[in-house]
């Protein structure tokens, strides 16, 4: 049998430097845990535009379809702001999501105990927080037609369309219920059924899937605006939140910041199972390309490292090895090591991007 394959698309800004640390961890698993991966690399985002005039070439797209998992760093930067919409760095990422049909985007918001004081909320509101947002990722207003900017009389009109089919709602609902069964067994679905027909259908379908297939999972519904409020008020009431593409974009940023550490959070985007039983999958940090600090050794590699941990768990069925990596991260944080985004406490030890990588590798070594 051949080794599992990984495609690394480090992207722009801090993407390459955080991915370099992940690369060392992948190599460590190959050497020390007898888990060799076939790693290939490609371009996505602005760097691909610079090289090829497109944020994602057809060759790279095809490669992404073949591998067992894609690891992505980050895309975008101010030098690309004025590019035509069709070739903006973000289009590369959206094309990957759409063509790989990665409909379930898992965004955990976990508060590391060592970092609870970085939250803008009080420690007791966030300490121990562990919620999972499941964001629908391939439909809704991000992709609905008609869209565009059209001329109407003497002014222009911007148009986007929110659109969900029942089967699109069903499959992401199932992802959320399945996850809940392996966690706290609760799902809260968020939409705006009070103003949007797509929300009425969303609520109805999620309820039906819950009643017929997951009666053991506790299901509740919330309007997304109230959900945003409850996330800030008492986030620990939630286990799994399932929501559409746009609400999920907003709610997951808010949830991420509750933990005080946007630089720490990973994500997994999963599609339907391939022939080998593995889901199509792309793993990426929730943070962006942070062009202001790129190339200075200031970036926090932990979100990208934890994205690889999610790959171990969801693509390679190596839950225990994912735990090992997550515990290594917890250990270095508990030891007071901090990249520039997390400085400020007394007694913290400042480290560079690669210094953080060194420490995580040392903690992995110590775990053997
Ligand atoms: C995200 C980002 C993307 C999105 C952008 C970069 C296209 O904000 O992954 O949350 O809006 O989905
Ligand atoms: Mg976003």
Automatic annotation (TrEMBL):
- What HAMAP family does the record tag this protein with? LeuB_type1 (MF_01033)
Q: Which Pfam families match?
A: Iso_dh
Binding-site residues, NAD(+): 77-90, 288-300
Q: What are the top taxonomic ranks of the organism? A: Bacteria, Pseudomonadati, Pseudomonadota, Alphaproteobacteria, Rhodobacterales
Function comment? Catalyzes the oxidation of 3-carboxy-2-hydroxy-4-methylpentanoate (3-isopropylmalate) to 3-carboxy-4-methyl-2-oxopentanoate. The product decarboxylates to 4-methyl-2 oxopentanoate.
Coarse class of the primary localization is cytoplasm
Which cofactor(s) are needed, names only?
Mg(2+); Mn(2+)
List of residues binding substrate: 97, 107, 135, 225
Assembly and oligomerization:
Homodimer.
Isopropylmalate dehydrogenase-like domain: residues covered: 5-360
Q: Pathway, per UniProt?
A: Amino-acid biosynthesis; L-leucine biosynthesis; L-leucine from 3-methyl-2-oxobutanoate: step 3/4
Give the E.C. number(s): 1.1.1.85
| Annotated binding of Mg(2+), by residue | 225, 249, 253
Keyword Magnesium attached:
yes
Q: Keywords assigned by UniProt?
A: Amino-acid biosynthesis, Branched-chain amino acid biosynthesis, Cytoplasm, Leucine biosynthesis, Magnesium, Manganese, Metal-binding, NAD, Oxidoreductase
GO MF annotation list: 3-isopropylmalate dehydrogenase activity; magnesium ion binding; NAD binding
Tell me what this protein is called. 3-isopropylmalate dehydrogenase
One of the record's GO cellular component terms: cytosol
- The organism named in the record is Primorskyibacter sedentarius
**Where is the protein situated, by its record's location annotation?**
Cytoplasm
For this entry, list what GO says about its biological process.
L-leucine biosynthetic process
Site keyed Important for catalysis: positions: 142, 192
Q: Which reaction is the catalytic activity of this chain?
A: (2R,3S)-3-isopropylmalate + NAD(+) = 4-methyl-2-oxopentanoate + CO2 + NADH
Family per similarity comment: Belongs to the isocitrate and isopropylmalate dehydrogenases family. LeuB type 1 subfamily.
Q: How is the cofactor bound?
A: Binds 1 Mg(2+) or Mn(2+) ion per subunit.
């Amino acid at each position: 049998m051949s080794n599992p394959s990984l495609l690394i698309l480090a992207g722009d800004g801090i993407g390459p430097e955080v991915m370099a640390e992940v690369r060392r961890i992948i190599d460590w698993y190959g050497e020390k845990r007898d888990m060799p991966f076939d790693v290939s690399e490609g371009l996505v985002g602005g760097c691909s535009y610079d090289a090829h005039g497109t944020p994602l070439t057809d060759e790279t797209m095809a490669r992404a379809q073949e591998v067992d998992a894609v690891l992505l760093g980050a895309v975008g930067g101010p030098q690309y702001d004025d590019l035509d919409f069709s070739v903006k760095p973000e289009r590369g990422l959206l094309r990957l999501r759409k063509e790989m049909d990665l409909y379930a985007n898992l965004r955990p918001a976990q508060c590391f105990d060592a970092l609870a004081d970085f939250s803008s909320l009080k420690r007791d509101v966030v300490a121990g927080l562990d919620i999972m947002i499941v964001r629908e990722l391939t439909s809704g207003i991000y992709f609905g037609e008609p869209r565009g900017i059209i001329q109407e009389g003497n002014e222009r009109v911007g148009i986007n369309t929110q659109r969900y089919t029942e089967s699109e709602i069903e499959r992401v609902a199932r992802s959320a219920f399945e996850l809940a069964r392996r966690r706290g067994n609760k799902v809260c679905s968020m939409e705006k059924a009070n103003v949007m027909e797509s929300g009425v259908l969303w609520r109805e379908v999620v309820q039906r899937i819950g009643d017929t297939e997951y009666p053991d999972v506790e299901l509740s519904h919330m309007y997304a605006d109230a959900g945003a409020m409850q996330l800030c008020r008492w986030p620990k009431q939630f286990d799994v939140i399932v929501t559409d593409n746009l609400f999920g974009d907003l709610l997951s940023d808010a949830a991420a910041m509750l933990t005080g550490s946007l630089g720490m959070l990973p994500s997994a985007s999963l599609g339907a199972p391939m022939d080998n039983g593995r889901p199509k999958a792309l793993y990426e940090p929730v943070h962006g390309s942070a062009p202001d600090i790129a190339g200075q050794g200031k970036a926090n590699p932990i979100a990208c490292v934890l994205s690889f941990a999610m790959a171990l768990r969801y693509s390679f069925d190596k839950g225990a090895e994912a735990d090992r990596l997550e515990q290594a991260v917890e250990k270095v944080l508990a030891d007071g090591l901090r990249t520039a985004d997390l400085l400020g406490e007394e007694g913290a030890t400042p480290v560079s991007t690669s210094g953080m990588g060194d420490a995580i590798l040392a903690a992995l070594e110590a775990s053997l």
